[in-house]
């Protein structure tokens, strides 16, 4: 999975560099947004189980989810030596000639469609029928002193 993320980052980084865009900022941002939507159904399961009366907890878990994804992407792909390592690793890859660059920019809309669809399906067919909404709220309320 990490190797796939590395390759998507590499191809978007090279594409942005060719257009003279700030590739060091835009490529990690692109990858972070794709990961955000890809893991949205998993977060929905956990987020709905924690949901309760206190809005602060709900917003806190959303913030932790977003911050966690973007910190992972930023820490992994913002260092110059990591970018040079990825360029050296993937510059002679046969997939560079096989897969067109525009295909990597389709990852974003595909991740949105699959993430939102997964979110709807998880909520409709798993969380509500099983009564999982708020099941962990008392634990976190006691843990954080509410």
What does it look like?
By secondary structure, the chain is mainly alpha-helical. The protein has one domain. Helices cover 77% and strands 0% of the residues. It contains eight helices and no strands. 12% of the residues are buried.
Number of strands: 0
Query: Strand share of the residues?
Result: under 5%
Number of domains: 1
How many helical stretches? Answer: 8
Q: What low-confidence regions span 5 or more consecutive residues with pLDDT below 50?
A: none
- Helix/sheet category: mainly alpha
**How far from one another are the termini?**
38 Å
Overall morphology = elongated
Order of helices and strands: HHHHHHHH
Mean pLDDT: 88
Report the radius of gyration as a whole number of Å.
19 Å
Helix content, binned percent: over 70%
- What can be said about the biggest beta sheet? none
Topology:
Layout: H1 2-18, H2 23-38, H3 40-50, H4 55-77, H5 80-90, H6 95-98, H7 107-130, H8 137-143
Helix pairs in contact: 1-2, 2-4, 2-7, 3-7
List its traits:
146 residues; mainly alpha; 8 helices; 0% strand
What's the short story on this structure?
The chain is mainly alpha-helical and 146 residues long.
